[in-house]
Amino acid sequence: MQVGMIGLGRMGANMTTRLLRGQHAVIAYDQNADAVRAAATGGAVGSSSLAEVVSKLSRPRAVWTMVPSGKPTNDTVHALLELLEEGDCIIDGGNSNFRDSQARCALAKKKGVFFLDAGTSGGVWGLENGYCLMVGGDKDAAQRAEPIFLTLAPPSGYAYVGPSGAGHFSKMVHNGIEYGMLGAYGEGFEILEKSEFDYDLHQLAALWLQGSVVRSWMLELAERALRQDSSLASIRGYVDDSGEGRWAVQAAIDENVPAPVITASLLSRLVSRQAESFSAKMIAAMRNEFGGHAVKREP
Q1: What's the Cα-to-Cα distance from 49 to each of 5, 30, 43, 45, 124, rounded to whole Å?
Q2: Catalytic residue flag (residue 146)
Q3: Percent of the chain with pLDDT over 70
Q4: Least confident of 14-18, 102-106, 243-247
Q5: Which of 89, 119, 247, 260 is deepest in the core (most CB within 10 A)?
Q6: Residue 150 vs residues 9, 20, 115, 175: alpha-carbon distances, Å
Q7: Which of 56, 128, 178, 289 is catalytic?
Q8: Is 109 part of the annotated catalytic residue set?
Q9: Which of 52, 85, 171, 244 is catalytic?
Q10: In angstroms, what CA-CA distances link 60 with 50, 112, 165?
């Protein structure tokens, strides 16, 4: 099947390679010309613009966007809608907010263009292991694009999950769960590291992978990281977020669902970005005022 791939970053480039291995014809574009050349070296047909991608695709066209959420995706979708024709399909595989995806779907529908929101999980490991795909939007359009999904996903790793927005909503919740899992592992290993026992953290991570109830792919990644640097001395404890955790917490509030684990894991990421917490300073100062508790002074 022919597919246009817009965005050749770590995910888009690997997805292009996986599609080519599956004998699909990929028309590739990125603002970075070097990324386009690399894709062309691997067998894709390189393009220098969105218009060129569209011109090289046979109707009905399928164009996959793999660009950052927000304005980059919005600009890309709007530009594509100026170029595509009735019956064509845009697939957004990025981490877009599901409300934005619903709005883009409604806009595309006015032109007779299908819009699918494909929640995509797998990270840099997806090239070899496949990508878990949660697809929302028009069911007939999803079935037409199924050869793409089946190639990108591992066996049983693709599902049509519902109407517009359902794909990105499920991916948002998936990432909220991921926040909680990461937070629990991080806290657990810190308790071990701070304890009176001189644990080999890599040894424990490797041990827990053998039949324990906390074994998981996430723990496999922890074991891998600790194997390379058992004290993580080379890593700064700054944890970013790309939006999905915030959206998941907001959805929980909107739906009156108590989600303390996901919420706390999101807030802990914000704490990680503070070189010095003013909140902590306030707590220390108040403890000193009411109880005479000692405070540590700046040198």
Answers
A1: 11, 8, 18, 12, 26
A2: no
A3: 100
A4: 243-247
A5: 119
A6: 21, 13, 18, 22
A7: 178
A8: no
A9: 171
A10: 16, 11, 22
Q: How far apart are CA 252 and CA 169, in angstroms?
A: 12
pLDDT (tens digit per residue) in 234-264: 888 888 888 899 999 999 999 999 999 999 9
- Report which of 108, 97, 21 is spatially closest to residue 251, judged by C-alpha positions: 97
Can you tell me the mean pLDDT for 32-56?
97
Model's pTM, two decimal places? 0.91
Token output for 234: 């080379």
Q: Which residues contact 97 (CB under 8 A, 6 or more apart)?
A: 69, 168, 172, 243, 247
Token code pair at residue 218: 């996430």
| 133: its two tokens | 């795909």
Report the distance separating Cα 13 and Cα 7, nearest Å. 8
Which string of DSSP letters, residue by residue, matches the chain?
Answer: -EEEEE--SHHHHHHHHHHHHTT-EEEEE-SSHHHHHHHHHTT-EE-SSHHHHHHHSPSSPEEEE---TTHHHHHHHHHHHTT--TT-EEEE-S---HHHHHHHHHHHHHTT-EEEEEEEE-GGGHHHH--EEEEES-HHHHHHTHHHHHHHSPTT-EEEEESTTHHHHHHHHHHHHHHHHHHHHHHHHHHHHHSSS---HHHHHHHHTTT-TT--HHHHHHHHHHHH-TT-TTS-------SHHHHHHHHHHHTT---HHHHHHHHHHHHHT-SS-HHHHHHHHHHHHHH----PPP-
Residues 6+ apart with CB under 8 A from 129: 122, 154
